[in-house]
Amino acid sequence: MTTPGSVTLGSPLGEPVAVVPGGDSWSRVRDDLAAHGSALAYAWLRDLEPAVPSGDELRELLGRDWTRYLDLTHSDVRNRYVASRMLLKHAAGAVLASEPADLELAYGPTGRPYLRGCDQIDISLSHTEDLLLVGLTTCGLIGVDAERADRDMYGGGLVRHICTPYEAVLLSGMPEKERNGALVRLWTLKEAYSKAIGQGMQFRFTEFGFGPDGRPVRVQRPDGTPGTGEEWTFRTFPLEDGYVVSAAVYDAGFGKLQDAHVTTMLDQDCVDAITEALDEEESGGAGA
Amino acid sequence: MSADDLTGLDAFLRIVGDDLGLDVEQPAGADLALTEVPGWDSLNLLRLVVLLEESGHRVPVHRLLEARSLRDIHTLVKEYG
């Protein structure tokens, strides 16, 4: 339970890729998406802030988020807000072959972000302290979460609000020095899963759980019995500087998407319908 | 901590800031959206639940999830006693 990133069920998921706007690591993100159907990218606030545009360029990049950005009063919150949107749009732009400012970020009823008009890709965003994390998938749904690996969680009464009874028993049976790290792993998995399904904490964290690391990770019922199947993939990765990130990916069974580019992405059913209509028109015209 | 400690808004904001390690300005911080409170995240919500429990306040978590600001949470604290 304390060695994140081991055996998994479902599609494999590449390790998070460190990126900066204008950097040369975006090809790895594209490669991960092509190979696995999902990709994780992360950046540090300190690296992003110097690249944040200003004036009209910032307004263009933020699009509909511009008004919300102006309403934010605290400088730290504003900086993180704009940096996270910039990272998300650059990441999506890299895999969709689109200019970041051309992409429109929208939000569902529960606040879940999505790219308007780009349903070939699902996105998720997380940040903690200086770390910003983006998840991208063409499989179906994705949720990601980042946290400090040593954030104080075990003790202080939090376990009964985070864990299922089964998880609480497993944690209490672990060596004391391993319990906090194991709980941080569980927390990030739960956050990632609840983001993927768009529920947030409305789906109480004590109502679903995860088993120990080092074996296939799947959602469990409160008593520890399996709750989901192989359609879900979960992974947890340690990052440098003492952070841990988790991702939850739902495979809707669309199959591997060969081309996610925004300019060439066409729904195959739509293409077939248009082709059929054109064929009918052509044969009708020939007979007239 | 007694149940009375959190019934005043100023004391509530001070204790929340101190116990959760958040930078909560008084009184303006009371009306900020929780997502705009520097350092606020979902774990802090659960830590606040524990803090309320330890101080004798039993506010249902689903009601806290509806709160949009610390003032909303303080109102719930007074409502549930």
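The mean pLDDT of chain A is 89.
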